[in-house]
Amino acid sequence: MQGILYFHVPKCGGSSFGAALRLRFFYSQASVSPRDTPQAHCKKANPTNTSAQISARYETRHLRLTHLLTQGTRCITGHMRYCPDLHDRLATAYAHVTLLRDPVTRFVSHYRYLQRHHPDPNRAKTLDAFLDSPDAERIGSQFLFYFGGATSDQDQAITRANLALSQFDLVGDLGNPAGFLTSLRQLVPGPLLHLHRNRAPPVHPIPEALQARIEQICAADIAIYRAAMALPQAA
Question: Whose CA is closest to 6, among 32, 43, 35, 36?
């Protein structure tokens, strides 16, 4: 059975499917998490997310992913960025899988998740005010960040993200979890449970007055999402 790499973009339902995959590969599985790293402890002491802190955390995750691949771990899940070099060098025998979500809905869910679980006195208290904050662009371009590589050229990053996702074995849509699970079971023979983790409170409609502003913030992710959903391996 081939290995599997599950790239979990925040607030795209990845906790449930990642847990199910790790249970399926019980004897050779791992989750890429920075919770026990010095960077994670620094974040607890200072919740402000600077570019340097974010870069350090993801570099730690990249090193852990590299180590797990080198060790031959068969199932690896987590908040980790796609790396073409790792794909070509160490992960050719792994199915690459991710689950995406409508970017506007994902953006609002991410903001509300941060408010519930990672309160920060420096963060805007309302969604309307948050749209004008520096963090809004970062939260609104997670697909770009996870799959587009390190570049300041947004158009180039979108092109890289589209190319990366075109090489995935399965790209799901959280709007169709049953279809994604069916396709995932075809990639991973044997029992694969449908677990439910990190259930969020009921989603309230996005205020119509904010829709256009959020779409502008999420423009790059919307382009990536639409291209991904047109792929033959989209589910």
Answer: 32
Return phi, psi of residue 209, to 5°. -65, -20
AA identity, residue 64: R
The radius of gyration computed from the CA coordinates of the chain, to the nearest angstrom, equals 17
Q: Rounded to the nearest 10 degrees, what angle do helices 38-45 and 51-71 cross at? A: 150
Mean pLDDT per 10-residue segment, the chain (235 residues): 93 90 95 64 51 88 96 96 96 97 96 92 94 94 95 94 98 94 89 69 78 97 98 97
CA atoms within 13 A on the CB side of 110: 24
Contact 145, 220 (CB under 8 A): no
Would you kindly state where each structural domain of the chain is located, as residue ranges? 3-229
Please tell me the CATH code under which domain 3-229 is placed.
3.40.50.300
pTM as predicted: 0.90
